[in-house]
Amino acid sequence: MSKGKKFLLKLLIVLTGMAIADVAVGGLMGHFYFRIRHGEQARTTYAVDSASQEILILGSSRASHHYIPAIIEDSIGMSCYNTGKDKQGIFYSLAILKAACTRYRPQGVILDITPFSFETKESALDQLSILLPYYRQHPEIRAIVDKRSGWEWLKTRSLLYCFNSLPLQILFNNISAEREAGAENGYVPLYNKWNPNSYVKESREQENSPADSTIVKAFEEIILIAKKLQIPLVVTVSPIYSAAGIHTQTMRLAKEICAGKGVYFFDYSQFKTLIGNANLFSDQQHLNNSGAVLFSSLLCSNLKPVFSKKGYSDAKSH
Questions:
Q1: What is residue 235's three-state secondary structure?
Q2: What is the rounded (10 degree) CA torsion for 40, 307, 91, 138?
Q3: Nearest 10 degrees: CA dihedral of 189, 195, 198, 203?
Q4: How many CA atoms lie within 13 A of 34 on its CB side?
Q5: Backbone φ and ψ of 112, nearest 5°
Q6: CATH assignment of 8-196+207-307, given 3.40.605.10, 3.90.1150.10, 3.40.50.1110, 3.40.50.360?
Q7: How many whole angstroms separate alpha carbon 157 and alpha carbon 212?
Q8: How many angstroms separate the Cα of 252 from the Cα of each of 107, 127, 133, 208, 298?
Q9: CB 286 within 8 A of CB 61
Q10: Euclidean distance between CA atoms 253 and 255, whole angstroms
Q11: Using H for helix, E for strand and C for coil, what is the string for 64-117?
């Protein structure tokens, strides 16, 4: 056998071994990943694969810590699930909505945005790796995950790649029964009270940061999906401790887009009952559980006419 043929044979053996290892180890990781029944991985799996509640809440950590489904359910009489996820943004919200709408049509959607959601730094493309485990089974989210790189479509052929950042979480969540205190239906409460004196203000030109057109397009796609499926959609900005960010490009553009497309926009960022009350905040951007209880209760007065089972009515935005 010639040297060239020997080399090709060895190369074939190596590649075959790598493929077998990828399928075996990656498949094993996937098996144990989808066995997780608590924590952020379980919440993401439920949101992507199983959520079928009448109202879905979309957003970042501010969504997951601010909106209490139990209060919304009691007030409006419709089931509710909070799909908010730490360190995520508009792209993640779009992926969750698209995955959900392949299974059923929600009766209402709440999209919580921050005053900086359209900024380029908020695109969180690296953080979209949380969706890699679902890439193969959910073609509807592939275009979103593919934004991470031009080679994502190829790299995701590897099962190991789809789980390569998760082995420790998979191991911990399979051997630990520890659960977040008070977490229910996607809502994750924060119990500490914030000390404003510990806050160091960011040095940034908040009001002048330009909007990222790709994020704005994703925001408009969420609106388009809701319109196409006739799903009542409410875009909200939940409370912030201080006045930071209320005049950003995101706030101005989001209001303009929602007004032009006939979407309810509720701005609670400067809600007087909550603003400046450190006892109701966990930090500058996040309400604690006491604040979330108060905010969720107040929010329902505006949600009732929008999400009424009788359909849209004359709800007034703030």
A1: strand
A2: 70
A3: 70
A4: 14
A5: -90, 125
A6: 3.40.50.1110
A7: 30
A8: 28, 26, 36, 11, 24
A9: yes
A10: 5
A11: HHHCCHHHHHHHHCCCEEECCCCCCCHHHHHHHHHHHHCCCCCCEEEEECCCCC
DSSP 3-state of 23? helix
Residue 278, token pair as written in the block: 């450190």
Residue spans of beta strands (DSSP E) within the chain: 55-58, 80-82, 108-112, 233-237, 264-267
The separation between the first and the last C-alpha atoms of the chain, rounded to the nearest angstrom, is 80
Beta strands 108-112 and 233-237 are parallel
Residue indicated by tokens 């485990």: 133
- pLDDT tens digits, one per residue of 259-312: 999 999 999 988 888 888 999 999 999 999 999 999 999 999 889 888 875 444
292 CA to centre of own chain = 18
Residue 233 gets which letter from DSSP? E
Question: HSE on the CB side for 67, CA within 13 Å?
Answer: 33
Among the listed residues 183, 181, 175, the one whose alpha carbon sits nearest the alpha carbon of residue 35: 175
pLDDT in tens, 105-134: 999 999 999 999 999 876 668 889 999 999
Cβ(192)–Cβ(282) below 8 Å? yes
CB 193 within 8 A of CB 279: yes
Rounded CA gap, 86 and 181, in Å? 17
Determine the residue type at 47: A
SS3 of 268, please? coil
Only one residue has tokens 């493929």, namely 19
